[in-house]
Structures are given as structure tokens and as C-alpha cells.
Amino acid sequence: MSDDPVCPLCLRPIPPGVPQSLHHLIPKLKGGKGGPTVLVHHICHKEIHATLSEAELARDYATPTALRAHPRLAKFFAWVAKRPPDFMSKVPKRKRG
Ligand SMILES: [Zn+2]
Ligand SMILES: [Zn+2]
To answer: 34-57 pLDDT, tens per residue?
Structure first.
């Protein structure tokens, strides 16, 4: 079965039942309300927001490609990609969620 959606960040499938969320490519606060969203793993989503501010997302990281090119996120996605799709780590708590 390969019709599961694929996370554009870590490029793993997102099977039913796995924690997932919609990421607004342009943050809502920055005028992205109703704008494009991508379905991503919850764990990937958290990492984006723990790493980048809304302003940074809006200005420089409004595409999955840009997000994957961020040095720290690239490392995270490479790491998480080796885990099973339903892997949920205890991501260390940071200020932004
Ligand atoms: Zn993912
Ligand atoms: Zn988001």
C-alpha cells in the first residue's frame, strides 16, 4: 500500500493513525490565512516551529524545499527519516511549539 500521503519534509509516508498536522507554508499571522498548507508528521511540524520563527518561515522558508535546505532541519529530517513512520520521539522542549 503506497497511497499514504508523503511528508514533504522527511519524505516518509504518513500512514493513518500517525500523529500528523497541517503546516501553513505562510504563517497565519503573516497573511497566510487560507494559504497553502502541507500535510506533515507531527514530529516534523514541531521541529520546524521549534527551529524557526514565524517571521523566518514567512520570509525565507515558505516552501518544503527551503525548509529541507535549512542546516539544522536538514539534519533532523535525515535523522528522523531512518525511524519508522510512526516514530514519535520525545523532542526536547523548546520555547516555540
Ligand atoms: Zn515527516
Ligand atoms: Zn506549522
So the answer is: 788 999 999 999 999 999 999 999
CA of 51 to the centre of ligand 2 (A): 11
Compute the distance from residue 84 Cα to the ligand 2 centre, in Å: 22
Residue in 58, 50, 47 with CA at minimum distance from that of residue 10: 47
Q: Which ligand is nearest to the CA of 4?
A: 1
Taking the whole predicted model, whether its pTM rises above 0.85 is answered as no
Question: Rounded to an integer, what distance in angstroms lies between the CA atom of residue 6 and that of residue 48?
Answer: 17
d(C-alpha 9, C-alpha 66), whole Å:
10
